[in-house]
TrEMBL record:
Organism: Dactylosporangium matsuzakiense
Stretches the record annotates as Disordered: 60-81
Keywords from the named record: Signal
Record protein name field: Secreted protein
The keyword Signal is assigned to this record: yes
Signal sequence segment: 1-23
Length: 242
């Protein structure tokens, strides 16, 4: 089941990475702050501070799960402490602290919603850095770009890195391009093959892996699948140029 779910999430992320979204708004056009949802979406609000954007129907479902959660716990606790769920239920885990007991399908849905969070928010690059930095090292000519980070994320989950172009040439639309989908270890570090410049390798980019306009640069957007929290970098990624 875990392997099937990871495959589904990866397929959805890849499909989303091939789609354009509406033309990017200005940061001043965000009526609810940096996590303002795209048209047709609302905050999920599974737990306090949960600003993942979902459909109104999904938010209603989430509120219903919150109301039913206490009745789905073992009244005397169990192997997983006082929040142990009754048979047939699991923790929803929209983030590690979310111990609301739900059917397994609801947990799967929450994971997919977390993974697709950058596609349901109005302006991904308006989000704060949340202490995350992505660095690049360029080499050769035509050059290649190595991306790495020294930041940590939710342990034993996955982190997705995207480039963001607000005005992809010839379309008038913004576009997100998936750069890397990397698992984390028990410490929240990326499970990369190399320790790179004191950090962890994200991806090795070659020609035309990043869709960009202008001076071949793009902002980097990060989504921690363990929480659905979106972050963006202050710096810009330089696209490999061939």
């Amino acid at each position: 089941m875990q392997r099937l779910l990871r495959g589904l999430v990866a397929a959805l992320a890849l499909l989303a990475g091939l789609l354009t979204v509406d033309a990017a708004p200005a940061a001043a056009d965000l009526p609810y702050g940096p996590y303002t949802c795209a048209n047709g979406y609302v905050w999920r609000e599974a737990v306090p501070g949960d600003l993942v954007c979902v459909t109104p129907t999904q938010r209603d479902t989430t509120r219903g799960e919150n109301a039913l959660g206490p009745a789905r716990r073992e009244p005397n606790g169990g192997a997983w402490g006082p929040d142990t769920c009754k048979s047939g239920y699991v923790w929803r885990e929209t983030r590690p602290s979310d111990h609301v007991c739900v059917p397994p399908a609801s947990r799967d849905r929450a994971r997919v919603d977390n993974s697709l969070a950058p596609y349901t928010i109005l302006l991904p690059t308006a989000t704060p850095t949340n202490g995350i930095a992505v660095n690049e090292v360029r080499s050769g000519y035509p050059y290649h770009t190595q991306l790495y980070t020294t930041s940590s994320f939710t342990p034993n989950k996955r982190v997705q890195f995207y480039s963001y172009d607000p005005n992809w040439p010839g379309t008038g639309h913004s576009i997100l391009t998936l750069l890397g989908d990397v698992p984390t270890d028990a410490y929240g570090h990326l499970q990369s093959l190399t320790n790179f410049y004191g950090g962890w390798n994200i991806t090795y980019l070659s020609c035309y892996r990043v869709a960009t306009a202008g001076w071949l640069t793009a902002r980097v957007v990060i989504v921690d699948q363990g929480t659905g929290i979106i972050s963006s970098t202050n710096g810009e990624l330089t696209a490999p140029w061939c």
